[in-house]
Design a protein that fits this description.
Carbamate kinase, single chain, alpha/beta, eight-stranded mixed sheet, globular, 7 helices, binds 3-methylbut-3-enyl trihydrogen diphosphate, 257 residues, two-stranded antiparallel ribbon
């Protein structure tokens, strides 16, 4: 069976990011099928895409309490939208025979960023968690990104073999924005001292885009865990990355090695 692999299903991969609450069921099924073919113990962290960012942006939920905005309704809406997206993920995992259980972060985590508080829940089968709106002692509430959850699971669970970030639309970290990139622009091995011109859709994205994945990936690899960013639209790459085989994508190294 081997050790544990922590894998992120990016929100831009599993939803159509520019249309409110539209799920990409084909991609979710192909990810679930790939996961079902591995014998590793899995922790799946999924993102929000159009089930989180748009409402969170409109009501400035990442900033915490802002007077004059109907934020309480927006918090409930984003949380229930995320549960809806999570239900799609869970049914797909079950369809492919995986015994999976979700732990909604707003029930166990507080605070945002890499040092959020809360004991990381773990299940004997596949553990599923996701980016969520959580309580915060200073701001009242905020957005906890799945990338920060990735960091904590990857570095605090025993026996983690590797962390995989499956994203949509690109093969890994590119030297130039995707719209301008060719195959030669894929950075196969990246460390924090290398620059890249990531495209961050700040107008729709309330967390950190590819830059946050790269930064959290570097923090994970610093602790000795292998990290890879891959294009999650290719199920064969997803399975190969989980199993630690050579695959097209970006390996992140800590910069200290
Ligand atoms: C964002 O989580 C959570 C919400 C906006 C509610 P992530 O940062 O993990 O989401 P993606 O992967 O960028 O969509």
């Amino acid at each position: 069976m081997g050790g544990t692999v922590v894998i992120k299903w990016g929100g831009g991969l599993i939803t159509h990011k520019d249309q409110l609450c539209t799920v990409n069921l084909d991609v979710i099924d192909s990810l679930a099928e790939a996961c079902s073919k591995s014998t590793k113990k899995l922790v799946i962290v999924h993102g929000a895409g159009s089930f989180g960012h748009m409402m969170a942006k409109k009501f400035r939920l990442a900033e915490g309490r802002v007077a004059g905005l109907k934020q309480d309704e927006a918090i409930e809406r984003v949380r229930s939208d995320m549960i809806e997206l999570n239900n799609h993920v869970l049914s797909s995992l079950q369809k492919y025979g995986l015994d999976a259980k979700t732990f909604s972060p707003h029930l166990w985590a507080t605070g945002t960023g890499p040092s959020f508080k809360g004991e990381l829940p773990i299940f004997d089968g596949v553990t599923v968690v996701y980016g969520d709106v959580v309580e915060d002692s200073e701001k009242e509430f905020g957005i906890l990104s799945g990338d920060d959850i990735m960091l904590r699971y990857s570095t605090e669970l025993p026996n983690v073999e590797r962390a995989v970030f499956a994203i949509g639309g690109v093969d890994g970290i590119l030297r130039v924005p995707p719209s301008k990139a060719g195959p030669e622009d894929l950075i196969e091995i990246w460390s924090p001292d290398m620059e890249f011109e990531g495209e961050h859709a700040a107008e729709i994205d309330v967390t950190g885009g590819i830059g946050l994945k790269a930064a959290r990936g570097a923090m994970i690899s610093e602790k000795g865990v292998d990290v890879q960013i891959i294009n999650g639209e290719h199920p064969n790459r997803v399975l190969a990355a989980i199993d630690g085989e050579n695959v097209l994508g970006t390996k992140i190294v800590s910069g200290n090695c």
